[in-house]
């Protein structure tokens, strides 16, 4: 069923959004996307983490566009993310 598959995809996407937000809620923390990947994908082979990082970054950029997260540092080597002050 096509509609059910689309709903499943959207539910998974929203769950990942919420998972990233929950990580950033930990004592007003700041995390790099690598650190977020290490938490979310801890039980997956590290060989998958590069692809996972691309997905996490897309979620972070979308959450930033929605005003829910923001970049804290933007040096050439490291970007940290935190919850936006709403």
TrEMBL record:
Domain LACTB2 winged helix: 32-74
Name of this protein: 8692_t:CDS:1
Pfam families per record: WHD_BLACT
UniProt source species: Acaulospora morrowiae
Gene3D superfamilies: Winged helix-like DNA-binding domain superfamily/Winged helix DNA-binding domain
Residues passing through the membrane, by range: none
InterPro entries: LACTB2_WH (IPR041516), Sec-metab_biosynth-thioest (IPR050662), WH-like_DNA-bd_sf (IPR036388)
GO terms under biological process: secondary metabolite biosynthetic process
């Amino acid at each position: 069923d096509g509609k059910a598959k689309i709903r499943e995809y959207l539910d998974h996407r929203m769950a990942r959004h919420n998972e990233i937000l929950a990580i950033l809620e930990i004592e007003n923390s700041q995390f790099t996307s690598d650190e977020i990947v290490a938490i979310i994908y801890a039980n997956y082979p590290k060989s998958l983490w590069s692809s996972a990082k691309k997905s996490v970054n897309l979620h972070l950029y979308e959450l930033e566009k929605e005003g829910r997260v923001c970049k804290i540092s933007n040096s050439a080597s490291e970007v940290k993310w935190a919850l936006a002050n709403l």
